[in-house]
Amino acid sequence: MEHKKETHSFKTEVKQFMHLIINSLYSNREIFLRELISNASDAIDRLSFKAQTDAKLLEEGAEFKIKITPDKTARTLTLSDNGIGMTYEEVVENIGTIAKSGTAAFMQAIENAKNQNTLAPELIGQFGVGFYSAFIVADKITIVTKAAGETTATRWESTGDGEYTIEPAEKPSRGTDIILKLKPVEKDEQDFTEEWTLRQVVKKHSDFVNYPVVMDVERVETETSDDGKPILGPDGKPVKKPPVIQEETLNSMKAIWAKDKKDVTDEEYKDFYSHISHDWNPPLTWFHWKLEGVTEYNALLYIPSQAPFDLFMPERKHGAQLYCRRVFIMDDCKELIPSYLRFIKGVVDAPDLNLNISREILQQDALVRNIHKNLIKKILDALDQLPAEEFEKFYNEFGAVLKEGIHSDWANRDRLAKLARFKTTQSDGKWVSLTEYAARMKPDQNDIYYMTGDSLASIINSPHLEALKEKDFEVLLMTDPVDEFIIQAMPEFEKKKFKSAEKGDLDIDKVDETKKAAFSSLFEKIKSLLADQVKEVKPSSHLRDSVSCLSGDTYDASAYMEKLLKATGQTVPAVKRILELNVNHPVMEKIQSIFEKNQEDVALKDYSLLLYDLATVSEGGKIENPARFSRQIGELMAKALG
Ligand code: ADP
What we know:
It is a single chain. By secondary structure, the protein is of the alpha+beta class. Helix content is about 35%, strand content about 20%. The protein contains 21 helices and 23 strands. The strands form four sheets. It has a nine-stranded mixed sheet with strand order 1-6-5-4-7-3-2-8-9, with helices on one face. The model has no long low-confidence stretch (mean pLDDT about 85). The chain binds adenosine-5'-diphosphate. The site of adenosine-5'-diphosphate has 17 residues, from helix 2.
């Protein structure tokens, strides 16, 4: 496609974001270099992955590198990589917008940081805006990039003040040059055109980058005589040769996952984490394994300290990278780590892997399958062994994801059920494991009770729990959407059945048979009056203080499930529910006496509707006719108050 020079504005959120990161990261300016080197290294990774199926992409050569070129006079710093590069469209797409799906989360963060003019660094790392950090040190950035296999290049330029230009350009070779026009150096600040500064920053933050990060350095050697001794000049000092420029590699490229644990410092582990994850927070913890034997692999895996904003977005990438003998094979490797552990970031290096393996057949590869199985086991073992406090932090962030495994990974269902935690009617906001729950079940309690809903507040006071509370039976309060699915995948735990507190009979206290009989014709009447609303009217085994509630048959969808399905746009078959009435409540006795006097009394219809509305309100549902409800309540109050 033909393009000419165009000027665009940054999206508003980008402008706000740039302003914030420049202010927030000022004291940490050197990390811009790590971000740009990481981007360059990713770009090379992506090229080498793509070239596995399209060798033509490497026709310029496969000697990958990232080059840093400082220019003291022009005060520029150029970062060049010979990675995959970007097409015109990709530049428009990638630079100048915030990672698309993150916009909402990002706007929220801005909102929260509004009055501070700064953003906590731990928030910044989450939005994939590494590139913009270069505006901390640069007052103009130029990108010249050519995608591998393309003929035209693209030039992007911005002074970071809200606009950028984009136009076709010339570039002899594939890859990306990022040219920073550096701001003047203030007193005591690092000068990023200084060789020493650049060496130090690369060593500190990017040492393990998998490709050489090189820089031209001036070497001055001394003249030596044939026997290797320095030749001295008339002033008695060694005579120097004319300076030569040499390209020097600044990073050691040591794959830390291949090292021995004892040879890696915590700092190195953390730096490696920020390199692979683009997360600027330190990880919560990491696991470093070397497995030998039939299934041989090295793995270095991290648990982030914070859940990323896109954890539940379907397009989210997995954080596992696959290597073979330190050669990058692919990232986002779903075949290694199951979806319910998708928050884990890190590297798996399998020396015996077939290098030509394609993504499509990865899943069938016996070695990959063994590693997959083995990794799950090791990760679950490691989670089991986390100190309680760390486990809790982990669970707060990722528990809802981990639980998905109960539904999706049958082989490990029991282990995952043991790792799962729930809040309960008796846990006072704390997490309880099913093992703990089972251990403190009452002697006359046979089942594990649970109740689902969208917030603790809405279910903890639900009338369905009244009888259970009176019995002092603990009830699991399940508020994650996934809970509905896992409960179906896990009919029992340690031979104890799960029983919904809102569905079916609780089988704890039987309703008195004579009472039941006494109310039976009234209940028939109410059922006929509410034929449009409910499928049955029956005496309740749930209620103590409340007069009515709605319940389902054991196999009906719960109220929360229905809400969830509706929220995802699915059509929910209209299942009528059961109206449960409390035959020990004085209101029921009063209605009974009206009924006994005149079975056709019009008030019966009003009261029936009111009982139904009360049941709906008590579970946080929407009543059909709020105006009628409020009028009826008003009339009743007027009567009661005389
Ligand atoms: P992130 O790297 O976290 O996605 P950035 O804002 O740093 O966010 O970069 C945005 C996107 O621009 C990257 O995801 C990548 O697609 C593209 N990009 C950045 N630098 C390069 C590069 N050196 N070569 C190719 N593409 C790049």
